[in-house]
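Look over this one:
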Amino acid sequence: MDGDNKTVVSEFILWGLTHSKNSQFLLFAIFLMLYILIVSGNIVILILITTDPHLHSPMYFFLANLSFVDMWLSSNTTPKMITDFLRENKTISFAGCMCQIFFSHCIAAGEMVLLVVMAYDRYVAICKPLHYFTIMNLKRCTGLVLTSWTIGFIHGIIYIVVIGHLPFCGPNEIDSFFCDMPLVIKLACMDYHYLNTLMNADCGLVAITCFILLLTSYTYILITVCKSSKVGGSKALSTCTAHIIVVMIFFVPCFFIYVWPLNITWLDKFFAVFYSVFTPFLNPAVYTLRNKEMKNAMKRFMGNFLGSKVNS
């Protein structure tokens, strides 16, 4: 870039969600409250699963990892968005922008693979119940989680290597609240259409592959549930319904942002907010409100906590 006498962009200007000052103060309060709920809700799930022996099973081991991932998915962009509501100049350094791109794709790809792992866990539990604890032992569970992180890391590294070496020589305004990969590529001083298509294809490969694996797993599960007893089938179906809800609220925004972009600015912002804020917010709610074991664990935790307070 320097060899071509091009000015290297040192920072990017984020346009944010709105230019209205009154709206920005309202959005600041709303998203601050949501972010506090996201962090506290996922931390509660992590504490419950870690401390309650009744939740020491593969399914809750993966759920704890999902909560951890969701917390970082939101923390990558939401704190910056919240503080920018109170700033006149919404800027982000070049390095900060690259970090947002890396972690966005690293965490998103890792979560996609983790959702596939959770679907596989439910497939084994429902379709092969007698061999469940033999197949889903601690070593395999740990290996599957590490695999999800490894795939996410490789996916993120690919993007940061490609985008970090693009020539940025002037335009530096991004019509969003964070450094989104398609918007940053458009600022490069080159014909970006081929590269943008290639990057979207890479996203599509990960997303569609994971989605097909998820559909396959849940199809086998639903077929097995339909053939099983009414009581056991009802419990399995309830658990799988929660998983399917989480899958849909995570994958739908991703598809319309990266795989099949609509190129409608306000809609892209809506999907970006839903993906980075509401998905991590809804996941704990879906799993805790629809899961009897989690609700019982919460009651036991509150009982032990209040009991310790009384004794002290």
Remarks:
- The chain is about 75% helix and 5% strand.
- Residues 28 and 82 are 6 Å apart (CA to CA).
